[in-house]
Amino acid sequence: MAVAPIPIALTIAGSDPSGGAGIQADLKTFSALEVYGAAVLVALTAQNTRGVTGVHEVPTDFVAAQIDSIFDDLSVAAVKIGMLATAPLIETVAAGLDRHRAENVVLDPVMVSTAGSRLLAPDAIATLRAILMPRALLITPNLPEAAALLDEPLAETDGQRVAQGERLIALGANAVLIKGGHGHEPDSIDILVDRNGVRRFHAKRVETTNTHGTGCTLSSAIAAGLARGLELDAAVAAAKTYLTEALQAAHHLAVGHGNGPVHHFHALWTDRAG
């Protein structure tokens, strides 16, 4: 009997040995959303819920070899890109995307961890902006990341956030999701800006300290939606709902002594959800 192919999404990112962010969060998200996850590791980190204490980069030639091995065998329907610590890594990943004509690329421009550790060299920001941002279908900066990409102050108002999204489009981005998790409004509002206009995605802000890996989880959930054939707006909306529910259920997980993880499997672990 013929077996229907499963959608495949690839994450290109760094590891989190504590399991809440990075490659581990991406693969959990893909699995929870019924997408087969493949992974290219670009860095090892020593981190936990309290912060990052070390980063060990994977050599660029081996990153390229991993990318080639995946695309030479698997039918990748979407790609999520996370932590890329240096300009050479960014250049290597961009070349790999071009080599294999990767589609549905979601770029999460990770610069600083939830606990405040810097994960992107300052001199690599220009490289990220110039050669990787235009290759992505969508970039998903939070408020500090959007400001850093533009070398501007943090956007405080809705109008300022839309304007920063529009300036990122002018710099070459195809679509920008300005995430509102760092805001202070009662709702967490993510703003999608592209050449077709502006759309807003609302969710009640969840009061929790379990925020480790939220950015990784949202971007990988969007990639999962794209891999399953959703249009961009629908993929963003579904990912927003998934992350909100994972945050709401996160209090069922007692993991670590810092910013704990969201509950990626809240819909499956019925005795630890709701």
Topology:
Blueprint: E1 8-14, H1 22-32, E2 36-48, E3 51-57, H2 60-71, E4 78-81, H3 87-99, E5 105-107, H4 125-132, E6 138-139, H5 143-150, H6 158-170, E7 175-178, E8 187-194, E9 197-204, H7 214-227, H8 232-248
Helix pairs in contact: 1-7, 2-3, 3-4, 5-6, 7-8
Overall structural domain count: 1
Can you summarize the main beta sheet? 6 strands, mixed
What is the average of the pLDDT values? 92
Q: H/E order of the elements?
A: EHEEHEHEHEHHEEEHH
> Which architecture per CATH?
3-Layer(aba) Sandwich
Structure characterization notes:
It is a single chain. This protein is α/β, with parallel strands linked by helices. The protein has a single domain, classed as UDP-N-acetylmuramoyl-L-alanine:D-glutamate ligase (3-Layer(aba) Sandwich). The protein contains eight helices and nine strands. It has helices at residues 22-32, 60-71, 87-99, 125-132, 143-150, 158-170, 214-227, 232-248; strands spanning 8-14, 36-48, 51-57, 78-81, 105-107, 138-139, 175-178, 187-194, 197-204. Strands 3-2-1-4-5-6 form a six-stranded mixed β-sheet. A three-stranded antiparallel β-sheet has the order 7-8-9. Strand 1 (8-14), helix 1 (22-32) and strand 2 form a beta-alpha-beta unit. Helix 1 (22-32) packs across helix 7, helix 3 runs parallel beside helix 4 (125-132) and helix 7 (214-227) crosses helix 8 (232-248). It is globular. It starts with 7 loop residues before the first strand and ends in a 26-residue tail after the last helix.
